[in-house]
Amino acid sequence: MRRLLLTFGLSLAVTGFSLAQQPDTLGYAYPVVGVSGLCSANFGEMRPGHFHGGVDIKTDGAEGKPLVAVADGYISRIAVSAYGYGRALYLTLSDGTTAVYGHLQRYRSDLEEEVRTERYRLRSNALDLSFGPERWPVRRGEVIGFSGNSGASMGPHLHFELREAGTGRLRNVVREGIIRPKDDLPPRIVRLHYVEVDTVQGVCLRSAPESYAVVRTAEGHYRLTREEPLPVGRRGYFVAEVTDRRNDVHNTFGVWRVRVSLDGEPRFEYRMDGFTHALSRCCDAVSCYPLQLASRNEAIRLAQLAGAPDAFYPLMRERGLIRTEAGERRRIRIEAEDDSGNLSALEFDIAGREGAFRAQADTTAVVLRPDRESDVALGCLVTAHIPAGALYESLFCRPESIPAPRADSGLVVLSPAVRILDATTPLRTPATVSVRADVPRDLRLRAALASWNPAKGLRYVGGSFDGEAVTARTRTTGWLVAVADTLPPVIRPRFAEGADLTRAAELRFRVADNFAGIVAWTLHIDGRWVPCDRYPMQSTLSHRFDTPPARSRHTATLTATDAAGNTARWQGTFYR
User: Fold this and answer.
1) Is 254 left (phi over 0), alpha (psi -120 to 50) or beta?
2) Per-residue pLDDT at 498 exceeds 70
3) Whose CA is closest to 479, among 546, 555, 417?
C-alpha cells in the first residue's frame, strides 16, 4: 500500500508537470519531465549500418530527469547492457504498443532494487528481465526511471521509440504527432549527383558520379549553380545529398521523404514512415552507399536498388531511372520534406547528350548474385562464403592481395592484406572470411582479422585461429588482414590509493584498450563480487555503492579482458 500511495503521488505530480510543459499528443504523455523538449536525432535518419529507430530527446546536458509512462500499461522488460541502449526499459501499453526508453541512468527505486537483486543472484553485470502484466503495472504519467548516458550514448539524452504490437514495426512518432518538436525550418538540399547506368551479364554498372553544386534562393527553394541544362545519358538517376535542421538546436536530422517528378509527373518517392528491425540495415541500400560513407548528409539514391525493400518506396516507376534521348530536354523537380511537414524543392532542366555510357565486363571476375550463396577464393590465401541475401545487387568480384601493412604498436601482422569485396560494397548479412596465416604458437589465442585502410590504419574485426587460417563472420568489406593483439587493457582508478570515499556515491575506473576492445570485466570488493557498469563511450567502469559506509578499509580487485583474450588486473584499497 505504501508503494501504491507513493506511486500515485508521483504520478499526479509528474503528470501535471508534463502536461504543463508539453501538449497532450494523441493521448500520450511526454516521456521525460523538466526538459526543454528539444531533440538531437530523429526517427529513421541514416546511421552507419542502420536506420535510427526512435527519437533522441535532449535532457539539457544533465542526467537524472524523471521518465514517465506515456500511457497506461505495464513494464514488460528491463535490460542492462554496456552496449546499445545501455539501461533500457520496455513498457507494453494497453493497446499492445511497446514504448522503449533507452540510455537510462537508473530505474525508479523498486525496479532498481529488483535489478540489484538479480545481478547479485546471477553474478552478472548484464541483465535481461521479462515480466507479465501483473508484476509492474503503471499508469500514464507514473515515474519509471531517470534519464542518463548509458550504453552507446555520446551524451545525456533519452532514446524513445514506439513499436507496433505483433510486428514490432517502429513508428515515426514525430510524423504521427506523438512527439511535436518546434520546427518550421525546411530541409536543406546540399548537393546533387548524376549516375549513368549500363547492364552487363545482369550486373548493373555505373559511371563515376557527376556532381553539381546547389544554392538556396529563398527559404525552401533551391537551384543549381549552373544555368544551362544538365547533360545526362540515356539511362541514369540522381543522388541527392540532403539534411534537416530544427529550431533552437545545432544538430542535423534526416528527412522524412524525397520525391522526384519528371516533366510534372511523379516518378519516385522515398518515405520514412516506419520499419521493422529486419529492414533497419537496408539504409545501406536506400542510400548511395559509396557517397554516404564520405558525407555528413543523407546521400539518398533517387532510384531503387535491386535489394532495397519496396516498403520504403510508396511511389516508383521504372525503379526511378530517368531515360533521355540525345537532344531531348526534360524538367526535373526534387522535393525534400521533413517529418514536421516543412518542404524544400529543387528544379532544373536536363538535356540528353550524344553517346552513352558503355560498361565493360571484367573477364577476370566472377559474378555474385544476391539470391544465391557464393564461395570465393584467392588461391589458398583467402576464402569467403557469402550467403544468399547478403548482397543488395549482383556484382563482379575479383579477389586480390597486397603486401602486409605496417603494424600498429602492440599488434603483430600475420598475413598479407586481402580483399574480396570493395569497401564501398555493403553487406546485409555477414560473410564468413578465412585468411590463411602462419601464427606462432604463443599468439594463436590472440589472433583475429582486422580491416585496413591507408588513412585509418588497422581496426579490429574479430574471429579466431583454427590451426590454418584466421576466420571471422563479418559484414566488413575492403582490405582484411590477420593480426595478433598482444597488449592487455589499461586500468586506472579515478581515486587515489587509500582514498576516503565515505561521501562518494560510486567507485570509478578508467579502462582503455589499444585495439580489440573491452568485452569482460569483474569487480570484487573484499573478495565479494559486486556489479560494475561499463560506459564504453567514456571508457569508464563504475560501481554504485549499495551498502551504507562501514567506516573501514576495503580492498578492490578489478579484472578487464579484451576481445583478443588479453587480461589486465588491478588491486588497491579505499576507506569507506
Assistant:
1) beta
2) yes
3) 417
Task: Give mean pLDDT, residues 472-498.
Answer: 97
Which cell is 231 given?
Answer: 547533360
CA gap 156, 148 in Å, rounded: 5
C-alpha cell at 507: 567507485
Measured distance CA(494)–CA(510) in Å, rounded? 7
CA distance 480 to 413: 11
User: Of 555, 553, 558, 554, which is closest to residue 570 (Cα–Cα)?
Assistant: 558
φ, ψ of residue 98 in degrees (nearest 5)? -110, 125
**What is the separation, in whole angstroms, between the first and last Cα of the chain?**
35
Count of beta carbons in the 10 Å neighbourhood of residue 90: 21
Give the separation between CA 232 and CA 167, rounded to whole angstroms. Answer: 43
Contacts of 88 (CB under 8 A, 6+ apart): 77, 78, 79, 80, 81, 100, 101, 102, 103, 104, 151
- At residue 338, the 3 state secondary structure works out as coil
Paired residues of 257 in beta bridges: 271, 337
Cell of 249: 538546436
424-441 burial code (b ≥16 CB/10 A, e <16): ebbbbeebebbbbbebee
Closest CA to 287 of 326, 256, 241: 241
Using one digit for the tens of pLDDT, what is the confidence trace for 220-273?
999 999 999 999 999 999 999 999 999 999 999 999 999 999 999 999 999 999
pLDDT surpassing 70 at residue 12: no
Mean pLDDT of the chain: 94
- DSSP string for 237-257: EEEEEEEB--TT----B--SE
> How big is the chain by its Cα radius of gyration, in Å?
27
> Parallel, antiparallel, or unpaired for β 343-352 and 221-224?
parallel
Residues forming beta bridges with residue 469, ordered by sequence position: 436
Phi, psi of 286 (to 5 degrees): -70, -40
- Give the C-alpha distances (Å, rounded to integers) separating 464 from 90, 132, 436, 443, 472: 35, 40, 11, 11, 7
Cβ(398)–Cβ(365) below 8 Å? yes
DSSP string, 388-403: TTS-SS-EEE--EEEP
Contact, 486 vs 443, CB < 8 A?
Answer: yes
User: Which three three-digit cell numbers place residue 472?
Assistant: 571471422
Q: How far is CA 379 from the centre of its chain?
A: 36
Determine phi and psi for 277, rounding to 5 degrees.
-60, -30
Nearest Cα neighbor of 63 from 47, 87, 80, 44 is 87
